[in-house]
Design goal:
CATH class of the largest domain: Alpha Beta
Bound molecules: FE2/S2 (inorganic) cluster
Structural class: alpha+beta
CATH architecture of the largest domain: 3-Layer(aba) Sandwich
Strand order of the largest sheet: 2-3-1-4-5
CATH superfamily of the largest domain: Glutaredoxin
Number of strands: 5
Radius of gyration: 19 Å
């Protein structure tokens, strides 16, 4: 499949929130980063239509905005899940079966690295060492850390978050 064929059409985005945010930054020096951060906070990601709106309102090129968005890992151009499941793929976790943990999550939620469930509840991300090697293999779900994982324990963690709103 070509890249163009994979592109998802953006749903209609209500730009009222973005306009209110940008109102504060018009004619302000160095406004682009904080404006984009606020827009992401408001929508949960940076919708494409807000990129064009930001370019127009702050009088910058869209290419400049995409440059910032792709350079800084904090920005996301696609909607993300309410729960971000980070699977550590660092050396210690790899040795202790991180691959099996990732496979289990993919099997249960249907998402691999950088993928989000259709209901926008979960996004999976495979990450480098998260500094809890003594508890390998480890995953994080938002701010919660779960270590010494087995397939059964992963199931319990997933079920816990599935049961939450
Ligand atoms: S390698 Fe996974 S926490 Fe360090």
């Amino acid at each position: 499949m070509t890249e163009a064929a994979e592109q998802v059409t953006e749903p209609d985005i209500d730009l009222t929130g973005a306009n209110a945010i940008l109102d504060k930054y018009v004619d302000m020096h160095g406004a682009l980063m904080p404006a984009l951060q606020e827009i992401q906070e408001f929508y949960g990601y940076i919708p494409e239509s807000t990129v064009h709106l930001t370019a127009e309102r702050l009088n910058v090129y869209t290419s400049q905005i995409y440059g910032v968005l792709t350079f800084y890992a904090q920005f996301h151009l696609q909607p993300r899940g309410k729960y971000i499941v980070r699977v550590c793929m660092g050396t210690a976790c790899h040795v202790k079966g991180a691959g099996r943990i990732a496979d289990t999550i993919k099997d249960r939620l249907g998402v691999g690295h950088a993928e989000t469930t259709d209901d926008l509840k979960f996004t999976a991300e495979y990450v480098a060492c998260i500094g809890a090697c003594g508890m390998a293999p480890v995953i994080m779900v938002n701010d919660g850390t779960y270590g010494s994982l087995t397939v059964q324990k992963v199931d319990e963690v997933i079920e816990k978050y599935q049961a939450m709103e």
